[in-house]
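Narrative of accomplishments. A recurring question from our advisory board has been how the design workflow behaves on a single, concrete structure rather than in aggregate. To address it, we present the structure tokens for one chain from the evaluation set, followed by the sequence designed for it. No filtering or post-editing was applied between the two.
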């Protein structure tokens, strides 16, 4: 009986120790998942056809302050490609949308996931810093007999300015390359 009481006391103390040790790690993980004030998506009809069509950026400001999206820097870390910096300089109204047209910029270079997916005849639909399922990374998130969605991920550094206070924010986050394909039946 004494052994089982010691064992129960040890396991409960060990459990409390693990909970106390893991709590800061969980807090750190929550900080990494922090939501940015700006949601954005790039679109290009050039991704669906062999054209030199430009790109369109659509941005949503999730704050009650006027913001200016200064730049988005595709870091291309751990890849065999140069980083890509896009100067944006776009003012977004509070809780509102703004958009801007660009000449075509190659965002697809040097990413093995993107290259492999394009070779498998997927179509790139958008590049954005949001998804319906934030736990998805390089997984098929919908798979039916007629339609599939796939995502690749890259790191970016987004810089914006609060126009009211002139304070500049720099945010490191993921962008997702959203692909889709239709099956021929």
């Amino acid at each position: 009986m004494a052994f089982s009481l010691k064992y129960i006391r040890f396991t409960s103390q060990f459990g409390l120790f693990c909970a106390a040790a893991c709590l800061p790690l969980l807090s750190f993980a929550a900080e990494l998942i922090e939501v940015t004030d700006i949601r954005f998506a790039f679109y290009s009809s050039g991704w669906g056809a062999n054209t030199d069509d430009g790109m369109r950026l659509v941005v949503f400001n999730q704050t009650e302050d006027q913001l200016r999206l200064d730049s988005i820097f595709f870091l291309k870390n751990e890849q065999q490609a140069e980083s890509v910096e896009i100067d944006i300089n776009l003012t977004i109204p509070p809780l509102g949308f703004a958009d801007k047209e660009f000449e075509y910029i190659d965002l697809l270079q040097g990413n093995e996931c993107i290259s492999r997916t394009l070779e498998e005849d997927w179509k790139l639909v958008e590049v954005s810093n949001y998804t319906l399922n934030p736990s998805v990374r390089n997984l098929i998130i919908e798979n039916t007999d007629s339609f599939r969605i796939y995502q690749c991920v890259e790191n970016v550094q987004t810089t914006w300015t609060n126009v009211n206070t002139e304070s500049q924010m720099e945010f490191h986050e993921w962008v997702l390359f959203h692909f889709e394909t239709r099956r021929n039946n």
